[in-house]
Amino acid sequence: MTESHSEEFLQLLETTGALLSGHFILRSGLHSRQFFQCAHLLQYPQISSKVCGWLSVRLAHLEIDSVVSPAMGGLFVGHEIARHLGKRHIFVEKEEGKLVLRRNFEIKQGERFVITEDVITRGGRAMETVEIIRRAGATPVAVASLVDRSGGEYADFGCPLISLLELNVETFPADDLPADLATIPASHPGSK
């Protein structure tokens, strides 16, 4: 992605309301001053196609057979990436608190996958998806996300993480909040 795309992507996150400021509890349980609600950006098909097209260019050199996404955040990203790359898209979803492959989706032995997410903070759901792929005898080739907000502190996927935007966004454990966050009520705007 060129520098101009980086600036344009940040502007799109802001103008669509996908980049929020305040006090947020992330899916990981960590607290943050910023929250990426990419669903607000992805609700616009033309914007979704544009930004996922930019990410697809970064994935085009990889040998992949299919795209897989953890529901819910990665669904739109995965579908658009698959469309741009001309590949099949499947997804995993929660059942009794953990991600599983359902709906008679099949993973073939030796099949090569890119795992897609909207935002990576610690990479827990992407890692669960990587493990599902490996248990089925397939190969995770890369994890791809619109935003990597981890500052390099994400799970070891055993394959590269490729993102449109890499940011080092501060996160805090609940028992060690800075004074400014401790005075603001926390919200949990993401998916569960």
CATH class: Alpha Beta
List the domain count as a whole number: 1
Report how far the terminal alpha carbons are from each other. Answer: 30 Å
CATH hierarchy: architecture: 3-Layer(aba) Sandwich
User: Which percent band covers the strand fraction?
Assistant: 25-35%
Mean pLDDT across residues: 91
Identify the overall geometry.
globular
Cα radius of gyration in angstroms: 16 Å
| CATH topology tier name | Rossmann fold
Instruction: Please report the number of helical segments.
Output: 6
Taking pLDDT < 50 over at least 5 consecutive residues as the criterion, the unreliable ranges are none
Give the fraction of residues assigned to helices: 25-40%
Tell me the structural class: alpha/beta
List the strand order in the largest sheet. Answer: 5-4-3-6-7-8
Following the backbone from N to C, one meets helices and strands in this order, namely HEEHHEHEEEHEEEH
